[in-house]
Design goal:
- The chain has 284 residues and is of the alpha+beta class.
- The protein has one domain (25-100, 139-259, 268-276).
- Helix content is 17%, strand content 30%.
- It has a 4-stranded antiparallel beta sheet. A 4-stranded antiparallel beta sheet has the order 5-6-7-8, with no helix packed on it.
- β7 (221-230) and β8 form a beta hairpin.
- It is elongated, with a radius of gyration of 23 Å.
Length: 284
């Protein structure tokens, strides 16, 4: 399992990317890389202490299906079958704890009385929709599509940090493990939703780098990264990056560590010109 932003705007997050949408939609692009370091500094910065994953973490299926909540054992921090955590939940039909989106089944409603159809003489022709109604329906459809495709890899063609990724790999001492982008409705500061990050190779039940990212919004965007890299020199040891960063959209941020790092950029999801063209003018 592997988790993984377009113009450069610079404003506080209290200035929403658009007031059209119900949620705060942003695109997150990140580059996760390792860096070669001499053995002696590594010995001084590695740790064998316990790691701390949130028990409930949002994760992604490798085959591109909907995001789902992933349960991590808080004692051992390894994958645990859901049946061992909550047998009743695991026994329910369908995939447990999936996020609902457009197209999910809706429970049958209570039967209601249906008014008789009007006769031909009584039939009233509905007036054509106003421009405001047309625009509102288009905005609603666009946001429905955002929800249906959120938390998924975007095509490589929309990535804006390809030059940075090439420069990192060209150094010979930096090695990009992950470069991708996804869109999400950013939650408020008091309701972070950690996203599971697992990159590189899996060995002895752990990935080269794993941990969580959480993006929230208040007056500014905020990023909290908690990542661990396994030590190749000391089995059972790892290096920790645990950093909070206040961000403005469109800015490139570098979260530094002696042996690995993270480049991240967050941009508002803008309404396309084809949608904005439907907006009623002030003269209408």
């Amino acid at each position: 399992m592997l988790l993984v932003m377009c113009g450069a705007y610079a404003f506080a997050a209290s200035d929403p990317p658009t007031d059209l949408f119900e949620d705060n939609w942003y695109r997150v692009e990140l580059i996760l890389f390792t860096r070669d370091m001499p053995a002696s500094p590594q010995e001084n910065i590695s740790s064998t202490g316990p790691r701390s994953f949130p028990v409930r973490t949002l994760a992604f299926d490798d085959d591109g299906q909907r995001p789902y909540f992933y349960d991590l054992d808080p004692a051992t921090y390894v994958d645990v079958p859901l049946a061992e955590i909550d047998p009743e939940l695991a026994a329910r039909p369908l995939t447990p704890m999936t996020l609902a989106h457009e197209g999910d089944a809706i429970p049958d409603a209570e039967p209601t009385e249906v008014a008789p159809s009007p006769s031909a003489d009584e039939a009233v022709v509905a007036p054509p929709p106003t421009q405001e109604e047309i625009f509102a329906a288009a905005v609603e459809a666009f946001e429905r599509n955002l929800r249906a495709t959120s938390y998924r890899w975007l095509p490589a063609g929309v990535l804006v940090m390809t030059a940075q990724a090439r420069r990192l790999n060209a150094t010979g001492t930096h090695h990009v493990l992950m470069h991708g982008a996804f869109e999400l409705p950013v939650p408020p500061r008091n309701a972070p939703l950690p996203l599971l990050v697992q990159a590189g190779h899996r060995h002895a039940g752990q990935w080269t780098i794993e941990g969580t990212l959480a993006v929230t919004i208040g007056r500014y965007l905020h990023l909290h990264a908690r990542l661990w890299q396994q030590s190749a020199e000391q089995p059972g040891a790892y290096y920790t990056l645990d950093e909070h960063r206040r961000m403005r959209s469109g800015e490139l941020h570098y979260l530094d560590h002696p042996v690995f790092g993270l480049l991240v950029r967050i941009d508002p999801v803008a309404a396309p010109e084809s949608l904005l063209a439907l907006a009623p003018s002030s003269n209408d």
